[in-house]
Amino acid sequence: MTSTTVTHRPVRWGRVAVHLGCLAALLVMLYPLAWLLATSLKPADEVIASLNLLPSRLEWSNYSTALDGVNDVSIWRLLGNSLLIAGGAVLGNVISCSLAAYAFARLRFRFRGPLFAFMIATIMLPHHAVLIPQYIIFNQLGLVNTYWPLILPKFLATEAFFVFLIVQFMRGLPRELEEAARIDGCGPFRSFFQVVLPLTRPALITTAIFTFIWTWNDFFTQLIYLFDPDKFTLTLALRSFVDASSTSAFGPMFALSVIALLPIVLFFLAFQRFLVEGMASSGVKG
């Protein structure tokens, strides 16, 4: 008879420590989300007074109050306004930034280098530095208290970060594909739409995800340009919900925060694999 010896792999305590550290970091990052969900179900007297994570009883009326809307504006109107602004911003950034990125990455024209450097420098420009000049321009055009100041700049390739992101991705694409299309008679626009644009899908989806999240969560810019409660978004409604009565209704406000968070989570889960692919591919070549 032959005897077989079973070898046991030694426990790698370093790897165990790394996994435990990652688990602890995950719990720390998820705690605010868990606190938000728990607080949205707390009674009004426990939201501020109690430090316990779990409520003593579930207050489902917070969600029914939140679904009634704010300032006689239904939550569906608020949700539609947010989707309109976020969708317009996504469409504008994807179209304009991809066109600008194609010009910088593929075309040859005078002062391309200085213009690209100037475009990159605008990333360091604070948003508040250009807010007042933009407000004056839109006010003179009579577009204040409309959605145009929140959507129109996105169609002018004003987001230098996304232009740079797509440029880095396009520089990694083989030029032979465009040369073959040019031999077949394709001009720059046709080569862009039929050859380059389909291959740039990961970077475009990355642009769409970040634009959607940043626009959906934007509060300051929407507060500057929107005055009419019928034009308010969910972000503005959260602030208005506190002042809707003499006493701040924190329970319904947190319930509305959970509702406002759901579209972002669903949008991210639907396109997260493209986000990772786009961010990884755009940094391969500089």
From TrEMBL:
This protein's UniProt keywords: Cell membrane, Membrane, Sugar transport, Transmembrane, Transmembrane helix, Transport
Domain ABC transmembrane type-1: 79-271
GO biological process: transmembrane transport
InterPro entries recorded: MetI-like, MetI-like_sf
GO CC annotation terms, alphabetical: plasma membrane
Bilayer disposition of the protein: Multi-pass membrane protein
Gene3D superfamilies (UniProt xref): MetI-like
TM regions (residue ranges): 16-38, 83-104, 116-138, 150-170, 191-216, 249-271
Compartments where found: Cell membrane
Coiled coil: none
Pfam families: BPD_transp_1
Superkingdom of the source species: Bacteria
PROSITE patterns tied to this protein: ABC_TM1
Family indicated by similarity: Belongs to the binding-protein-dependent transport system permease family.
Protein name as it appears in the record: Multiple sugar transport system permease protein
Organism of origin: Streptomyces violarus
